[in-house]
Amino acid sequence: MSSNTTAIVGVGHSPVFRHDEVRLGTLTIDAATKAIEDAGLTPADIDGVIADPMQPFDGAGAVDGIHFVSPEYVINAMKLDVGWYESTPIVGLARTIIEGSNAVASGNCKAVLVFRSLHNPGGRYGVTAPTTADGMYQFLSPYGLFPPGFFAHLWHRYMSKYGTSREQMAPFIVNNRKNGLLWDHSYWRQHRPEELTVEDYLEARMISTPFGLYDCDLPVQGSGAFVITSGERAKDLPHLPAYIRGWAVPGPIGGWHIWSPLETLQKRATTFATRLLSNADITVDDIDVTNVYDGFSIFVPLWLEAFGFCGEGEAFDFMEPANIAIEGGKFPLNTSGGNLGAGRMHGVPQVMESVLQIMGRSGARQVQRAEVALATAGGQPGSAGGIVFSSTPR
Q1: Cα–Cα distance between 267 and 136 in angstroms, integer?
Q2: pLDDT per position as a tens digit, 247-256
Q3: Which H or E element spans position 7?
Q4: What is the C-alpha R_g of the chain?
Q5: CA pair distance 99, 111, nearest whole angstrom
Q6: In terms of CB atoms within 10 Å, which of 121, 243, 286, 380 comes out highest?
Q7: How far is it, in rounded angstroms, from Cα 390 to Cα 287?
Q8: Domain boundaries, the chain
Q9: Which of 287, 307, 309 is nearest to 372 (CA)?
Q10: 6-122+219-234 has which fold?
Q11: pLDDT tens digits along 44-74
């Protein structure tokens, strides 16, 4: 990577809605147009497009541009002349960023557009009427086992093993909402600019014990987009580049990873974190801003322990606001609010905020001297990709 440096040079985000009030295709074109303009480029400069069009509730009759958005849809709608495009059927954003970076590093593309768009249909969330349940789902679906139930057992085991409680999670959730209200693209800032209190968190209805309402990310409809180009070309564009210093993906683990015991997940996550730090040639002490994937609250302490910010079982002490706050905190954490504080965008808040921090464009969220930022995106620890961004090329 040191000889084929790539960088994110532009970002764009659509408005965010609770459900599908505005077509997903419209929101995607909006985000893509903003990202290209932000990079100081034109659509004619884009010669590669990659996205993960997969949705939590894809099904028969899904229409491109309404229920999901493919690279082909964007290419045709924006009349792009590209030599490479790809769909990656992997939930999350990190791997599409990695593949886009590889396309530039290889010399096949000069400027790649990456986007992630999330559809949230109207009606009660998660209501489906399947007629069959194949493979592992025959043991799960007939009994209603679906996220967050998939992951509640992790926190049960963590509580039992380390003696922690829901009360210890409350300060982090409150701080996360505070950060989310500073993020322009947060659902809460755009539609419900309400602070959260410890009492709000603890008294909210239980979803899947010990997950309460605010332990679960908020499904939304929106789109985020990025432009990747070479490190050499990035020097001539309007913003300071966010160089892609290193990345890692988990090994093949199969569908049953969603039901892994805590100890299995911890081992896998630690292996992944060690690989990512090694690939980026940094230590955890070099990281100035950390934005980890938080589809469910228990993911955050597990990420912190995997990377070595603290010891095993010590994350709740580490996550005290005085330590992770944007102002004065030694380890600013999820400065955009992540999924919990902004809305479920499958890694967009984590990656985009890390990029903006490196560029020095995070406004009220800006961390002083942010030179290295860590982002993980797309799933629980050990099954999501990760990227390290830096203000200087490796």
Answers
A1: 23
A2: 998 876 655 5
A3: strand 6-13
A4: 20
A5: 13
A6: 380
A7: 9
A8: 6-122+219-234
A9: 287
A10: Peroxisomal Thiolase; Chain A, domain 1 (3.40.47)
A11: 999 999 999 988 865 556 899 999 999 999 9
